[in-house]
Amino acid sequence: MESGFPNLEDESLIDQIQEGNHEAFVELVDRHSKRFYSISYRLLFSKSDAEDVVQQAFLKLWEKRLFWDQNKKAKFTTWFYRVVVNLCLDHNRKKKAMPLLEEAEPVDKQEGQEVLLDEKRKQILLARFVQELPERQRLALNLCFYENLSNKEAAEIIGIKVKALQSLIMRAKTTLKGKLNHHFD
After folding, report:
1. Is 35 exposed, middle or buried (0-12, 13-18, 19+ CB in 10 A)?
2. Alpha carbon 23 to chain centroid distance?
3. Residue boundaries of the structural domains of the chain
4. Which of 44, 57, 121, 185 has the smallest set of CB atoms within 10 Å of its CB?
5. What is the spatial distance between Cα 111 and Cα 46, in angstroms, rounded to a whole number?
6. pTM for the full model?
7. What is 1-96's CATH number, 3.40.50.720, 3.40.50.2300, 1.10.1740.10, 1.10.287.180?
8. How far apart, in whole angstroms, are the C-alpha atoms of residue 89 and residue 156?
9. What's the per-residue H, E or C state across the chain?
10. What is the pLDDT along the chain (185 residues), one digit of tens a residue?
């Protein structure tokens, strides 16, 4: 079943949602759930927690739909990233210790699989090192490199200036490079 809103911009959908239009809300959820789940997962490292946060964020949007202020000229996605990111950060603060990703179990190597297995181990190691970064550095990397947001958008979401964002990314890259070099030396 196709919705009647595929050509409406997000901000126009919000106008419809403010009027209590459930179909417009469903369209917005369908349009953006994967995107916001993706960033949530990379900040929480738990599928169920990421799903819960995204659901909570959309529920909050519906319940507080009348508070959306179109005059602020904020793009919906930028504003909603901030909602989702804040919920993730709150969730992480409530947890005592975040479990680190486990290394891959040794697998019987088959001919030709050695390179693929080595690449997978490097990806797992890099993910673990990213998870060990300070919260704001991890957030900056995720928004800019995985979500492909501009530095300006990412800085706005985090609530910092672009230069501060660039500094966070530079420190994160330096830390990751040092850890990877140390590990493979």
Report:
1. middle
2. 25
3. 1-96, 114-185
4. 185
5. 33
6. 0.72
7. 1.10.1740.10
8. 16
9. CCCCCCCCCHHHHHHHHHCCCHHHHHHHHHHHHHHHHHHHHHHHCCHHHHHHHHHHHHHHHHHCHHHCCHHHCCCHHHHHHHHHHHHHHHHHHHCCCCCCCCCCCCCCCCCCCHHHHHHHHHHHHHHHHHHHCCHHHHHHHHHHHHCCCCHHHHHHHHCCCHHHHHHHHHHHHHHHHHHHHHHHC
10. 455 677 889 988 988 999 999 999 999 999 999 999 999 998 998 999 999 999 999 999 999 887 777 667 778 898 899 999 999 999 988 875 445 544 444 444 455 577 777 777 877 888 889 989 999 999 999 999 889 999 999 999 999 999 999 999 999 999 999 998 888 77
Q: Which residue has the tokens 């106008």?
A: 15
- Residue type at position 76: F
